[in-house]
């Protein structure tokens, strides 16, 4: 690893949509023998603001309309940050001469600029990663800072193209015909959206359900053909493991007969294995859902979007033939053939740029120069 500069990946615990991609990039870079560390914004919050964050998460899970309104009212979070923790982080970066940053949440941009002012003689390489096909809320807050880094689009609304990919699992994806007649249904990391309203119609259409729940009470009373999965309630994205690492969320299958056993993987999020076996994902069009869709060749049945940026995601996927709205799919009679066609469209796609590999090549070029 000598000669390689450490990559600092800056992310957030707002849902898991920018947390999981940050960890996937870190793991991919490490596999290529590069040094990479992850920082989660909420680890810098004051205790009071962190408590408020948890309260918002609960409220948004219970009320999707409230979550949509909150997204339209996003503002700077500087008053949420603990001044001493921020200062300690910036001082550590100065000591370690950090110069390479991958930014997944725009709320980090003011801190990057503060750091830039402290190391005026150090050239920074900063990528602003777009999890959505349009500018997402955390970057939208800082229009004056959006040009201080390289824009990295995974998928782009204006062009309707997939530009970059983030690899997940190394194994080949299962063939569509070998997958059971099951659908993954979820509302992202915070469990927001209309996904719970779809369960009856999907079951009546003949599909088994793999459902992400957010409490054991939500799993009670589910139909026999529904498997429920839940995140470990003791885990939070801003907490580090005993080894000092940020880890993928531990999950477990909920059973009424025995305690839930929570486990995870080190290389990617364990629920991706369930998605790889499904015929489709039924969810709002979040960016991490699209990462799973591409990597698993599992099409997406789109529900109502959380934001305009997510709606743009759905439009790109529908244009490419990788997804379809629930309304339009229902009009086909919940056709399995439609899902299979979309699966094959994903398989046959022209590969996009492997973003972690491209970042690693750029880093090697900087060292050589």
Main traits of this protein?
16 strands; alpha/beta; seven-stranded mixed β-sheet; five-stranded parallel β-sheet; 37% helix; 369 residues; 14 helices; single chain
Account of the 3D structure:
The protein is an alpha/beta fold. 37% of the residues lie in helices and 17% in strands. The chain is built from 14 helices and 16 strands. The chain has helices at 19-31, 47-62, 64-72, 83-96, 109-118, 137-140, 199-204, 216-219, 272-276, 287-296, 308-320, 326-331, 336-347, 355-368, and strands at 7-11, 36-40, 100-103, 125-130, 150-153, 155-156, 161-162, 164-165, 182-185, 208-213, 226-231, 251-254, 280-283, 300-302, 323-325, 353-354. It has a seven-stranded mixed β-sheet. Helix 1 (19-31) packs across helix 14 (355-368) and helix 4 (83-96) packs across helix 5. The radius of gyration is 20 Å and the shape is globular. The model has no long low-confidence stretch (mean pLDDT 92).
Please give the structural blueprint.
Elements: E1 7-11, H1 19-31, E2 36-40, H2 47-62, H3 64-72, H4 83-96, E3 100-103, H5 109-118, E4 125-130, H6 137-140, E5 150-153, E6 155-156, E7 161-162, E8 164-165, E9 182-185, H7 199-204, E10 208-213, H8 216-219, E11 226-231, E12 251-254, H9 272-276, E13 280-283, H10 287-296, E14 300-302, H11 308-320, E15 323-325, H12 326-331, H13 336-347, E16 353-354, H14 355-368
Parallel strand pairs: 1-2, 1-3, 3-4, 4-5, 8-16, 9-10, 9-13, 10-11, 13-14, 14-15
Antiparallel strand pairs: 6-7, 11-12
């Amino acid at each position: 690893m000598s000669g390689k500069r450490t990559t600092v990946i800056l992310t957030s615990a707002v849902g898991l949509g920018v947390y999981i991609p940050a960890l996937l990039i870190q793991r991919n870079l490490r596999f290529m023998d590069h040094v990479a560390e992850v920082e989660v914004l909420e680890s810098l919050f004051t205790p009071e603001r962190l408590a408020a964050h948890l309260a918002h998460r609960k409220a948004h899970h219970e009320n999707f309309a409230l979550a949509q309104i909150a997204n339209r009212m996003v503002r700077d979070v500087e008053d949420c940050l603990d001044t001493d923790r921020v200062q300690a982080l910036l001082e550590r970066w100065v000591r370690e001469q950090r110069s390479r940053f991958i930014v997944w949440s725009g709320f980090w941009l003011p801190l990057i600029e503060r750091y830039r002012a402290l190391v005026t003689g150090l050239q920074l390489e900063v990528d602003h990663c777009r999890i959505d096909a349009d500018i997402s809320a955390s970057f939208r807050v800082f229009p004056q800072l959006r040009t201080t880094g390289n824009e990295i689009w995974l998928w782009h609304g204006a062009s309707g193209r997939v530009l970059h990919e983030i690899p997940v699992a190394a194994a080949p994806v299962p063939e569509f015909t070998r997958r059971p007649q099951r659908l993954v249904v979820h509302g992202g990391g915070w469990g927001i959206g209309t996904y719970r309203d779809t369960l009856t119609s999907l079951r009546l259409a003949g599909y088994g359900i793999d459902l992400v729940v957010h409490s054991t009470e939500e799993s009670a009373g589910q139909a026999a053909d529904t498997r429920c999965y839940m995140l470990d309630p003791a885990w939070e994205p801003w907490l580090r493991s005993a080894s000092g690492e940020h880890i993928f969320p531990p999950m477990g299958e909920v059973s009424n007969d025995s305690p839930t056993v929570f486990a995870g993987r080190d290389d990617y999020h364990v629920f991706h294995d369930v998605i790889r076996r499904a015929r489709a994902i039924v969810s709002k069009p979040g960016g991490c859902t699209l990462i799973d869709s591409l990597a698993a060749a599992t099409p997406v049945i789109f529900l109502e979007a959380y934001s305009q940026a997510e709606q743009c995601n759905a439009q790109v996927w529908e244009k490419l033939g990788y997804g379809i709205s629930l309304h339009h799919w229902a009009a086909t009679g919940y056709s399995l053939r439609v899902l299979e066609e979309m699966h094959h469209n994903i398989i046959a796609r022209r590969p996009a740029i492997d973003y972690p590999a491209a970042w690693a090549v750029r880093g090697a070029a900087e060292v050589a120069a």
